[in-house]
Specification:
This protein is an alpha+beta fold and 137 residues long. It has helices spanning 6-34, 105-129; strands spanning 37-49, 52-60, 66-72, 83-91, 94-100. The longest helix has 29 residues, at 6-34.
């Protein structure tokens, strides 16, 4: 299968579209999480499972109620007793999602990889759709 064949052009276009959709999704999710309310919390314990780590964090809501959540730890290592900032999303007075405020490394890494794929996809599509050179024969 040649890159300039009909099938090659189709595959190049689909790959570019998939990378663009993924990049938009990552940017949208990151922006949405940044818009959540924030609260100071305290790490109660650090949980380790294989290569991944989580922390159990207690934080207060504006109504005074206390919440305890297990949150993914993608940023710096947190120890029990350490103060952290928690972002949370409320729906009908209940916390529906929460994350550590400094947990943006996953978004940056994923966004960087997808951005690189988008640039590669644009390059491949330029090659695939460029007019063929005519021979001087």
């Amino acid at each position: 299968m040649s890159l300039r064949s009909g099938r090659g052009r189709f595959v190049a276009g689909v790959a570019l579209a998939a990378a663009l959709v993924g990049l938009v999704f990552v940017i949208r999710a990151s922006a949405e999480q940044r818009s959540w309310a924030g609260a100071d919390g305290t790490v109660q314990e650090r949980l380790k499972s294989g290569k991944s780590a989580s922390v159990r964090v207690e934080f207060s809501l504006p109504d005074g109620s206390r919440q305890v959540r297990v949150l993914s730890e993608n940023g710096p290592k947190r120890e029990p007793g350490e103060r952290v900032t928690v972002r949370y999303d409320l729906a009908d007075g209940q916390v529906v999602d929460a994350a550590l405020a400094d947990n943006d490394q996953a978004f940056w890494v994923t966004g960087g990889i997808l951005g690189f794929l988008v640039l590669g996809g644009i390059s491949v599509n330029l090659i695939a759709w460029a007019p063929r050179r005519r021979s001087d024969a």
